[in-house]
User: What shape does this take?
Amino acid sequence: MSAICLVIDRLHSGYLGAYGNSWIETPAFDRLAWQSFVFDQVLLDSPCLDRLYRSYWRGWHAMCRGGPPDGQPAVAAMASKAGTRTVLLTDEPIVARHPLAEEFDELVEIDPPWQPQTAGEIEETHLARCFAQLISWLESAEGPFLLWCHLGGLGTAWDAPAVFRRTYWEEGDPNPPEDAEAPDRMLPDQYDPDELLGITQSYAGQVTLLDACLGALLEFLDGSRAGRESLLTLTSSRGFPLGEHNRVGTCDEAVYGELVHVPLMIRFPGGSGAGGRSHSLVEPSDLWATLLEYWNVKSPPSPTALSLLPVVRGEISTLRDRLCVEGQGGERAIRTPAWYLRVRDKPELFAKPDDRWEINDVADRCHEVVECLGDVMAQYEQALQAGTVADLPPLNEVLLSGLA
Assistant: This one.
């Protein structure tokens, strides 16, 4: 059995139609969502690619301090055990040089765009070149394979033809910026809204370009036996802040939803699970556990990783009642069905799922919830180190539903 894992870095889930966006046309993403099982509540355990890929490839949470047991295989070794050829295709040096990348049979490395410029045609863009390389590899693929494709995506170059960003320009708007460099800066409290509007229009143009590239890939997959018989997953390794919390781009990688809340769609051969949707809390290591079950490979359990297949099959409706995120400089966050607590210099609390992008901080009105979630987060981290997350008691009703 073959699998294609497509990871697009810096893809903001709020800019996809399948996740609620209504002003950017994303027909290819919409089509893939219709053919897939969609997970709505996927949060990264870390925005650091090194630690995130340890979760993806070995099912080991970013907050785990020790190494995984020797008997717990990386995803490439797992696929090889199932008789599958493994290939890593990427334009991201951090991913290509990751210690676990050595376990892939083949590395296809694409040079990043060192001096990006706005392209005249789609084919001249960096994303189009990456997807062309991906499709080229698939054209000659034989036998069962795992193709893991990580693309810098919307964090490397905003080189879509100018017409793409002008699609979202309206009369009276200032002209969108012409720069092809992805922006990265903090906005002042009294920032110019026209500046942010232009940045947003440019990002929307990149999403439109990405959608066109994805459409070409889906057309190829639908017309090839390898494509029709392969599991296809699409997710993002990080979102892209676009003015939320006065951040544009990477900045300080603060673990708000625009950075750590990412899309995940899984298309199964034969259409199994198509049109399904889940609000279950999902973390990156679950992809490792899902592939493990998909290939029927036995392995010692991970402290946190859970296969998504029981949710897809309708055997269970939820995987967990909490998950934790580790940011930079000691930043921590915990998510439950009802709350999101972020702790950096001071605690911030947001009601979920209604406050999707953490706009209304209610920490000063919910002191008991803040204190309780802080204790739960500390217990969770201790349980991670001890490998006893499964033994944690269930959360109380206030943390699950927000109701006293």
In short: The domain at 323-401 is CATH 3.30.1120 (Arylsulfatase, C-terminal domain). The CA atoms of residues 349 and 364 lie 8 Å apart.
